Amino acid sequence: MIRTDYFNMISQVFKDVVPVITSGIITVVLLSCVLFGIQTYFSLTQGIFSVGAAVFQNGDIHRLLMHPFYHKTFAQLLLNIVALVVLGGSLEKGVGTVRFLFLFLLLSTTTGLFFSFLELLQDDSSRAPTEGLVPVALACVALTTMHTKMTKGFLCGVSFPTMALPWVFLVTTTALVPHCVLLCNVIAILTGWMYGKVWLSFLSMSEARAGVLEKMMPFRLLKNISGVTFVPSSTEERRKTLLPRINPTPGSYPVQAYAPLSSINIADTGAMVYEGWPNSTSALSGPTPPVHLHGHGSTHSSGLSHGHSCNHSHNHHAHSHVQL
């Protein structure tokens, strides 16, 4: 019994620490891994999908869509995936999988476009093309902080204002993740705030439109992936998915115990039992005589006694015993 409780406690702690893997996050991770495998297998040129001044100089518009899935090294890929899972999961839980993927493309494309334009104005020596999931993850954090009602956030036991969390994560990710460009990360945070303030509302997707797309391919396949949570776009369905009803196991909560029904010989043939207690139909016509604490009742009114009593009309003895 103690061992079972111990394992249950360990599993609960593990569930609280490990974030929930959602369909949108796993889709982005798989695309990044596939592109990294293709790059490694064919030995593609380093920086072929990096975003920068080459978008305008060479007309490589496809880099605006490809740069978040592109990573130069395996270490960069792993750290970017961790950053996206930790920082971007809350946005998908708030808007749904379909709208998260739509916002992912909007945030990454807008960030890459602004960064490429600013890099075009710089000298060739100071240019540093960038790629990876970190800018989009920071944009997701900035967008989430614009809609949250929390005024304080906690990181490693330290309290921060909610609006300062993107900048805290900016310093952390820029210092730890390789090939991160500070300017691109700053633009990503500002882009997330722009979408959070609904300045670009004409590009947003409505909840009804996202609900229609959920029933189409390939989103129907995402719903059938086992072990991965597909977050619906509807608010009510999203609450049911993320906050499921708790079904406690029998015996987990105390319940009211009823006193067992003792073997009582009831003279009235119309008597019935209700929830473990004798219930006679004759009780509707008059008050029920009280039962004494020591089990002694009136033999003429109820026909119950603690010992033997004589019934003069029928000339026989009745014996009963009441347990309380």
What distinguishing features does this structure have?
324 residues; mainly alpha; two-stranded antiparallel sheet; two-stranded antiparallel ribbon; 12 helices; 6 strands; 7% strand; disordered N terminus
Description of the molecule:
The chain has 324 residues and is mainly α. 46% of the residues lie in helices and 7% in strands. The protein has helices spanning 2-17, 23-42, 54-57, 63-66, 74-95, 97-120, 134-145, 165-176, 182-196, 207-213, 219-223, 235-242; strands at residues 152-155, 158-161, 271-274, 277-280, 308-311, 316-319. It has a two-stranded antiparallel ribbon. It starts with a helix and ends in a 5-residue tail after the last strand. Mean pLDDT is 75; it is low at 1-7, 9-17, 266-271, 273-277, 280-286 and 290-324.
Summarize the structure.
The protein has 324 residues and is mainly α. The chain contains 12 helices and 6 strands.
Fold topology:
Elements: H1 2-17, H2 23-42, H3 54-57, H4 63-66, H5 74-95, H6 97-120, H7 134-145, E1 152-155, E2 158-161, H8 165-176, H9 182-196, H10 207-213, H11 219-223, H12 235-242, E3 271-274, E4 277-280, E5 308-311, E6 316-319
Antiparallel strand pairs: 1-2, 3-4, 5-6
Strand order of the largest sheet: 1-2
Tally of contiguous helical segments: 12
- What structural class do the secondary elements suggest? mainly alpha
> What is the CA–CA distance across the termini?
34 Å
Give the integer mean of the pLDDT values: 75
What is the H/E string? HHHHHHHEEHHHHHEEEE
The beta-strand count equals 6
How large is the radius of gyration?
35 Å
Largest sheet: 2 strands, antiparallel
Unreliable residue runs: 1-7, 9-17, 266-271, 273-277, 280-286, 290-324
Strand content: 5-15%
Proportion in helices: 40-55%
Shape: globular
